[in-house]
Write a structure and sequence with these properties.
The complex is a heterodimer of chains A (about 280) and B (about 220). Chain A contains ten helices and no strands. With about 280 residues, chain A is mainly α. By secondary structure, chain B is an all-alpha fold. Chain B has a single domain (about 1-210), classed as MetI-like (MetI-like fold, Orthogonal Bundle), CATH 1.10.3720. Helix content of chain B is about 80%, strand content about 0%. Chain B contains ten helices and no strands. In chain B, helix 2 (about 10-40) packs antiparallel against helix 9 and helix 4 packs across helix 5 (about 85-110). Classes of the chains: A mainly alpha (about 280), B mainly alpha (about 220). At the A-B interface, helix 1, helix 4, helix 5, helix 8 and helix 10 of A face helix 3, helix 4, helix 5, helix 6 and helix 7 of B.
């Protein structure tokens, strides 16, 4: 094995690396053993504590919760795309009167924690006859992810070679035509991976709905752990579900990236999804 | 609204708590994340895999669930941490994964010639990283790391769900108490977060300019 950073190892280095590997493995195995022993000692490995997760009724309940979570994530991503497109176009506008407010809105919602937005919406507009917790979650996520996507759209349009817009103006297209028929269609290709990554963020953020008692898989999980006192097991199962879903999404983003843009470097956006802007 | 201003010390203390969470987990995750990035690009396969697995698992788990682990599940295993320690643990564990990815991308952005030259004069991997690659990589990753730190500052709000009285929890308290001035209270606390975020941005901008090297 060699990379730019190090040479192919000679005999002494190989021996040393074997020692490092052995130590690391020992530490990892030791940690795992510690966890297992600890689990066993406190009765966390008892079948009764894991049973809910192989009981059909509870599995169905969890899946329904997951469906709600995914539903909230999808609605907020779709709404965020619309909202982000409007804001992004606003930010790119030549008119100060349009671009300044768009800029303020984007900066504001990017700086405010999603959870605080949820608390505020729920306290102010929730309650009887008001917004349901579900919509509080969707609206907060739309505002936040929309602001992030606005920046993605802007960066995507910027990434289209300038000659394209110039050629458009040269043949007499209007500003809206240049944007709609030349820049946006080409930008979509560049932006798609970033948009899919943002879905991972949105999916993770929907779990925050738990704090305002919106449904979803974490609420179902809480119901289960309050009944069976299997907090540890529930946390493990919930984490596994999200890791599986998110890794599928990330894999999809990479596939799309390779398919659409080839070797072009990933779109760099200030505070983009890949840098973990959100929860 | 008088409620807020007559108890303004509570607001300040809440933001103090937010900043304390941010500072402790920020420093820890910067250190651990850089170390992890070193493992991830290093010559020892086991370390590389372990670091990769850590990043994949932690990055794809919602922060709320990491908090559930630390705050709800750990006590079941007879591990009792204080609220603040537990909050820092959850935030650090999560943010470390993002710092690692940012630093790794920085390492990848350094010209091949730098590493080749370092190897040519006989530096070991550790020396190459410490003396040649990381000093350049860390300069290159100031903007993405600033994004990670801004995210961390906002992520401290999740601690509100688990009983830490930081800014978001305090906002909820005031908003529930003072029905007439909800929007004003929200805007006041939002302004607090905007200030924190802008300070981090400004700091990063300053560092970026100061550390800029001709390449």
């Amino acid at each position: 094995m060699s990379s730019v950073l190090f040479d192919t190892a000679g005999p002494r280095t190989r021996a040393r690396q074997k020692v490092y590997s052995a130590v690391t493995l020992l530490v990892i195995v030791g940690l795992l053993a510690f966890v297992v022993v600890r689990f066993n000692a406190s009765g966390q490995l008892d079948y009764a504590k894991w049973e809910p997760f192989v009981t059909p009724d509870y599995v169905v309940a969890l899946l329904q919760g997951l469906l709600e979570t995914v539903e909230a994530a999808i609605s907020s991503v779709l709404l965020a795309i619309v909202f982000g497109l409007v804001l992004g176009l606003g930010k790119m506008s030549d008119h100060r009167l349009v671009s300044a407010p768009a800029w303020v809105v984007v900066e504001f919602f990017r700086a405010v924690p999603v959870l605080m937005l949820m608390f505020f919406l729920f306290a102010t507009y929730g309650g009887d006859g008001g917004l349901s917790p579900y919509w509080c979650v969707v609206i907060s996520l739309t505002l936040y992810n929309g602001s992030v996507l606005a920046e993605v759209f802007r960066a995507g349009v910027d990434a289209v070679p300038h000659g394209q817009a110039e050629a458009g103006y040269a043949i007499g297209l209007r500003k809206s035509q240049v944007m709609g028929t030349l820049l946006l269609p080409q930008a979509v290709k560049i932006m798609l991976p970033a948009i899919i990554s943002q879905c991972v963020v949105a999916l993770k953020d929907t779990t925050l709905g738990y704090a305002i008692l919106a449904g979803g898989i974490v609420m179902v999980g809480k119901g289960i752990y309050l009944e069976f006192q299997n907090q540890v097991q529930t946390a493990v199962v919930l984490a596994a579900v999200f890791i599986a879903l998110n890794m599928t999404l990330s894999w999809l983003a990479t596939r799309v990236q390779r398919r659409l843009t080839g070797d072009r470097p990933v779109l760099q956006v200030r505070g983009d999804a890949n840098s973990g802007t959100a929860v | 609204m008088d409620d807020v201003f007559s108890h303004f010390d509570l607001v300040l203390r809440a933001f103090g708590q937010t900043l304390a969470l941010f500072a402790v987990s920020g420093v820890l995750s910067l250190l651990l994340g850089t170390l992890l990035a070193g493992c991830r690009v290093g010559p020892v396969p086991v370390l590389r895999r372990a670091a990769g697995a850590y990043v994949n698992v932690l990055r794809n788990t919602p922060l709320l669930i990491i908090f559930v682990f630390v705050m709800v599940a750990l006590p079941q295993l007879d591990v009792h941490l204080g609220f603040f320690t537990a909050g820092c643990l959850a935030l650090t564990a999560y943010t470390t994964a993002f710092v690692c990815e940012a630093v790794r991308s920085g390492i990848n952005s350094i010209g091949l010639g730098q590493a080749e030259a370092a190897r040519a004069i006989g530096l070991t991997f550790g020396q190459t990283m410490r003396q040649v690659i990381l000093p350049q990589a860390l300069r290159a990753v100031v903007p993405p790391l600033a994004s990670v730190m801004i995210a961390l500052a906002k992520n401290t709000s999740v601690a509100a769900v688990f009983g830490i009285m930081e800014a978001t929890a305090r906002m909820r308290y005031f908003v529930n108490n003072d029905v007439s001035a909800r929007t004003t209270i929200f805007l006041l606390f939002a302004l607090g977060y905007v200030v924190v975020v802008e300070l981090i941005s400004a700091g990063a901008f300053g560092l970026e300019r100061r550390w800029k090297v001709a390449r």
